[in-house]
UniProtKB/TrEMBL annotation, chain A:
Involved in the transmission of sensory signals from the chemoreceptors to the flagellar motors. CheA is autophosphorylated; it can transfer its phosphate group to either CheB or CheY. The modification Phosphohistidine is found at H46. It comes from Ensifer adhaerens (Sinorhizobium morelense). PANTHER family: CHEMOTAXIS PROTEIN CHEA, SENSOR HISTIDINE KINASE CHEA. One of its GO terms (molecular function) is ATP binding. GO terms for biological process: chemotaxis. InterPro entries: Bact_Chemotaxis_CheA (IPR051315), CheA-like_dim (IPR004105), CheA-like_homodim_sf (IPR037006), CheW-like_dom_sf (IPR036061), CheW-lke_dom (IPR002545), HATPase_C_sf (IPR036890), HATPase_dom (IPR003594), His_kinase_dom (IPR005467). This is Chemotaxis protein CheA.
UniProtKB/TrEMBL annotation, chain B:
It holds the Pfam family STAS_2. InterPro entries: MlaB-like_STAS, STAS_dom_sf. Coiled coil: none annotated. This is STAS domain-containing protein.
Length: 761, 97
């Protein structure tokens, strides 16, 4: 386990913490005042800071520190998390995410932005403190509220050097004296923390006298070498304030009992009955690393030291789980003993929740490559099993029942294995949705609109590949929804709506697919303008008679977005063709429905996985094709009486008193030159993207089967009208039909996507 | 000088007395019980609280056994650390004769 791997684990955890942070802040934003929520948010930042310190990621540490300080004010009820405060905090969460990404992948961050936010955060922390503490000099009195670590120069007080120390010396006489009782628990040592280092850091804050309480220490034969027996009573003269003292112990907070109290008169020795030992000032010999430049952030030193010890422990422990635990040690403390009186209630409840969280189902991290390899192998297994069944059927026509039963069981097992393997890759859409809330915030800021993003069904699971590829089109659509979909607050008020626009992002499972809906309550699509634009761009004939739905769908057309002055259109249209293409590349469909004045709803339907598909195997002109089962509504045997000719070469089929265009798949794919006779074949009624139904004409249905998808693009090249390929039981390659393109082609659109259509409808 | 009758044993401490070393040190000390002990802490570069605990428990045990438990030589780091954490080892220091 080298450093990079530990670092990678850290970043993975950062991601989780950032998600936690954001969802917590959003909860607060919704008016949640549960202290647990505040604690969770605080902990998230704290953990990131702790880990970042261990890896020397200074930017991250310094920003997280300021953030944390402000959050601490919220935690201690010194700062009310109103909308303005939360706005700053949400932005800070975004910057923290940026900094984390920058630390992981390199690259820069918007420094001006983070500096600005640091200022705002500090202002929040300071501003409220002034209000909260009536005493003009909070440090001078034994007031419970002590100035937070932040001062005008940022987070300077944490930084410490011996130079500062000497400068402070003349003032030593008037310095307040604190009495500190420090009782480490065994966990503190088990997690690689070291009391000596904490005490060393403490001694640097001022003049320290210490008494070590060894009463608990047993004789050697009853001693357990890794149990904490020592506890300390410390008297410390410092002007750094109580917070600075607590900062020293912050990474051990949950593993020790700590009491810090201000002694009224600094001159009087606090506990005279105890023999106190003065602590030598020059402790540089105890520094593990060469003495650094002055102004080294003390915390960093401490962390570096912790890290060393941690490394040592890691090498000893050696297992990944241990490393994980170590990396988290700073913040994640399982509560094994009831905490003593000293630990603050907040810390306790925080720890309690930690315990609750860690009690959740245990998980392991697995390299994605391994999962993919497994999935591939299972895919091969499925194909192999199909081949086996087929050859048994072919070679043994009467089929002994035991073989057949065995085969059936095998089939069931493979299916189960496949489902389980797919479940490994399934992930909730939550992270993507969370990213969207940031995008909404940013766009809303840019456009001066007030937007609320409501997400539903975040825990809906879908294949990881789908999730990864979903982010981009979704981002695009969210941008459009806020930028073009929602009106300005003034317009909204004029239209009798609330000034705050709503964007609703929903995910749900529906018949083996995931359906993602993006709805806004904006003005809806301005069909007149869209239509005009389409005519101007030669996308449709000036006199074309289009349904509302067809007009709405025009915005997905490639030619539409390349036109200039897109933002003049009050509907949408920026890059929606790109969105559509990426959704289609995922095997998905996208629909739009819009109500003028009430907003638009985009509905995306995506397959749950990209690896397998339930398909209907059909024959068209002696070719075997697979039609995705999800697209098929019903199958029927057309009768001659139900077929009607329409125009020169169009035909309709009448189904239950309605007409449905008949699509000759063989013709469109150029499998045959002449039209097939519908009566000899089978019609598959499919739902097309526009919502209308089409009847696909094929020669015969072979059966229904689960097929393993093999990308055509990766192995050959993209073929219009074909989504992918698969290997059938007999070893032959079958093409998987891209139903939407076939349907589009039947409307007169070319199968070649780059060619523009001359007329729609 | 130590009397001839009592077996005089010496324990040299490892340079790094951290978490991992505490158990080892504990076992070593248990093995040395029953005789006067001189501890050489001159090589110690880093010492953690747990090991100090073990050593102090040792001192306590030896005292109960009425045997001598002394530090012959201590390194600067060892001395500073014990001082820092408020553990007084002065009375355990070997008196130069």
């Amino acid at each position: 386990m080298d450093m990079n791997e530990i670092k990678e684990i850290f970043f993975q955890e950062c991601e989780e913490q950032l998600a936690e942070l954001e969802s917590g802040l959003l909860k607060l934003n919704d008016g949640d005042r549960d202290p647990e929520t505040v604690n969770a948010v605080f902990r998230a930042v704290h953990s990131i800071k702790g880990g970042a310190g261990a890896f020397g990621l200074d930017d991250l540490v310094s920003f997280a520190h300021v953030f944390e300080t402000t959050l601490d004010c919220v935690r201690s009820n010194r700062l009310d998390p109103g909308p303005e405060v939360l706005k700053v905090m949400l932005k800070s969460a975004d910057v923290l995410a940026d900094l984390t990404n920058a630390a992981r992948d390199g690259g820069g961050v918007d420094e001006a932005r983070s500096r600005q936010l640091i200022k705002e955060l500090e202002a929040l922390a300071n501003g409220e403190v002034l209000q909260a503490s009536a005493a003009p000099e909070p440090v001078a009195k034994a007031a419970p509220v002590v100035a937070p670590v932040v001062n005008d120069e940022g987070f300077q007080p944490v930084a410490f050097s011996f130079d500062d120390f000497e400068a402070d010396e003349p003032a030593l006489m008037e310095m307040p004296t604190y009495e500190i009782v420090f009782r480490p628990k065994s966990d503190l040592y088990a997690k690689g923390n070291e009391a000596t280092l904490l005490l060393r850091d403490l001694s640097r804050l001022g003049e320290m006298n210490i008494h070590c309480d060894m009463d608990a220490l047993p004789t050697l034969d009853r001693l357990s070498p890794e149990t904490a027996y020592f506890s300390w009573k410390i008297s410390l003269k410092t002007d750094k304030g109580e917070d600075a003292i607590r900062t020293v112990f912050e990474f051990a907070e949950w593993d020790c009992d700590l009491e810090v109290s201000l002694v009224a008169d600094g001159a009087a020795a606090p506990s005279e009955e105890l023999p106190m030992q003065p602590v030598p000032f020059d402790l540089s010999i105890l520094d593990d690393e060469p003495v650094g430049p002055v102004g080294v952030i003390e915390e960093e030193e401490q962390l570096a030291a912790q890290q060393q010890i941690r490394d040592a422990a890691v090498s000893a422990a050696g297992t990944a789980s241990n490393v994980l635990q170590m990396a988290q040690s700073a913040a994640r403390a399982p509560v094994e003993k009831s905490a003593g009186a000293a630990a603050s209630a907040a810390a306790q409840s925080a720890a309690a929740q930690q315990a609750a969280a860690s009690a959740a189902t245990p998980t392991i991290r697995v390299d994605l490559d391994r999962v993919d390899r497994l999935i591939n192998l299972v895919g091969e297994l499925v194909i192999n099993q199909a081949m086996l069944s087929q050859s048994v059927v072919e070679n043994d026509a009467n089929g002994t029942s035991s073989i057949n039963m065995g085969l059936e069981e095998l089939q069931q097992l493979t299916r189960e294995i496949q489902d389980s393997v797919m479940a490994i890759r399934a992930q909730p859409v939550k992270p993507v949705f969370q990213r969207m809330s940031r995008i909404v915030r940013e766009i809303a800021d840019m456009t001066g609109k007030s937007v609320r993003l409501i997400t539903e069904g975040e825990n809906t699971e879908v294949d990881k590949t789908v999730i990864d590829k979903l982010a981009e089109p979704l981002t695009h659509m969210i941008r459009n929804a806020v930028d073009h979909g929602l009106e300005t607050p003034e317009k909204r008020l004029a239209a009798g709506k609330s000034a705050e626009g709503t964007v609703r992002l929903t995910a749900k499972h529906r018949s083996g697919r995931i359906v993602i809906e993006l709805a806004d309550d904006g003005a809806g699509i301005n069909r007149e303008k869209v239509r005009q634009k389409a005519i101007d761009n030669d996308l449709i004939a000036a006199d074309a008679n289009l349904s509302d739905e067809e007009i709405d769908n025009l915005i997905f057309h490639a030619g539409f977005s390349t036109a200039d002055k897109i933002s003049d259109i009050s509907g949408r249209g920026v890059g929606m063709d790109v969105v559509k293409r990426s959704i289609q590349a995922l095997g998905g469909r996208i629909n739009i429905s819009s109500k003028p004045g009430h907003g638009s709803v985009f509905t995306m339907s995506l397959p749950l996985t990209l690896a397998v598909l339930d398909g209907m195997v059909v024959t068209v002109a002696n070719q075997t094709l697979v039609v995705p089962l999800t697209a098929i509504v019903e199958t029927l045997q057309p009768e001659a009486a139900a077929i009607h000719s329409f125009g020169s070469n169009q035909r309709l089929i009448s189904i239950r008193n309605s007409f449905c265009p008949l699509v000759d798949v063989g013709r469109i794919l150029n499998f045959r030159a002449s039209q097939a006779n519908p009566v000899e074949g089978v019609a598959l009624l499919v739902e097309s993207e526009g919502g209308g139904q089409r009847a696909l004409m094929v020669d015969a249905i072979q059966g229904q089967r689960q097929v393993v998808i093999k990308s055509l693009e990766a192995n050959y090249t993209h073929v219009p009208g074909i989504a992918a390929a698969t290997i059938l039981g007999d070893g032959r390659v079958a093409l998987i039909l891209d139903v939407d393109t076939i349907v589009a082609a039947s409307r007169g659109q070319s199968l070649k996507p780059e060619m523009s259509l001359a007329a729609a409808g | 000088m130590a009397s001839k009758k009592t077996a005089q044993k010496t324990l040299s401490l490892a340079p790094v007395l951290d978490l991992n070393e505490a158990t080892a040190l504990h076992e070593k000390l248990l093995g040395l019980k029953g005789s006067d002990l001189t501890i050489d802490a001159s090589a110690v570069e880093r010492v953690g609280t747990l090991c100090v605990q073990v050593l102090m428990a040792g001192a306590k045990t030896w005292e109960e056994d009425h045997l001598s438990f002394t530090f012959s030589k201590v390194s600067d780091a060892f001395e500073k650390t014990t001082q820092l954490i408020g553990v007084d080892i002065d009375h355990l220091m070997a008196k130069e004769i």
